[in-house]
Specification:
The chain is α+β, with helices and mostly antiparallel strands. It has two domains: about 80 residues, no CATH class; about 220 residues, Endonuclease/exonuclease/phosphatase (Deoxyribonuclease I, Chain A, 4-Layer Sandwich), CATH 3.60.10.10. The chain contains eight helices and twelve strands. It is elongated and about 70 Å long. The relative contact order is 0.15.
Length: about 325
Amino acid sequence: MRNIIYWILSAFLTLAIAIVSLRYVTDFWLLSFIYSFQIHLGVAFVAASLLILAIRRHAYGFALLFAALLLTAHGVVMLREFGGEGRATGAAPLFRLMSFNVAIDNWKNSTAIADMVIASNADVVNLLEAKPLTFHLQRLFKVYPYHIGCDNGKDSCDTLVLSKRPFVTRQVTSIGSLRKDRLVVAGVDFGGHTVNLVSAHLTKPYFDDYQVEELEDLDRALGQISGPLVLAGDFNSSSIAPGIQAFLRKQNLKTMAPEPATWPIAAGWFGIAIDHIFGRAPLHLTSLKRLDDNFGSNHSGLIAEFVLERDGETAAAR
């Protein structure tokens, strides 16, 4: 009986490892979400391998354990690939950015969210699914006199970018063909330094291949931008998903590793980061933190600080 149980469990674990390992063969959209959980699944596979070996010590069980360890280790390596070198300078940051997916049906917490945004001391705030904040806009605009989005009532209120600093340029457009106006590209003036701010909200990766199309459009949009750039938003995928990886490499984007987990809320720090804030040189992150409260959203928000380096020197905040 023990031998039968051993081979049944081994067969199931072999299949599971093979499915996750398909990332090294193909970036199939249906499995993209699974790829985001490679580290978590790898740890589970290691535990399952040890259980199998406890039932029977056999060479195949050790092979499964080795494969599980490789998947886990490579997941950690991939996660750290896009971590910047960390600019821990003594200078004040050039600006602070908050990014938060409010959740489109989160009406009961809208007042608390508006209060939090006002008290955040962020220079720029990127809010996604911002419809619940419709009735707090005037209060927000008093603190953030420059804004993009939510100009035509609650039905048009999806992406909302708030800024204490003036916009040099501004554009709202679409990526992919599923949803409209989920890409905002703006130049923000920080005391004479123009920073390109891009807000993006991608579709869930298991919704057919829409995310693939969105990443292609986003790649083209960023390819036309020169100079300091920050990209923030809800990607609905981890940085280790193959499509996201390819995009980040091509655009030379960096964050801080490990990124704070933002989903699922119940998992806390053991979840995965599907909400991101990236920078492109000469812009560098000096801190990246998760908001203490999710305010009823199914995502945690992020707040980051940036410095701008030119010719080896850090631009001072003004």
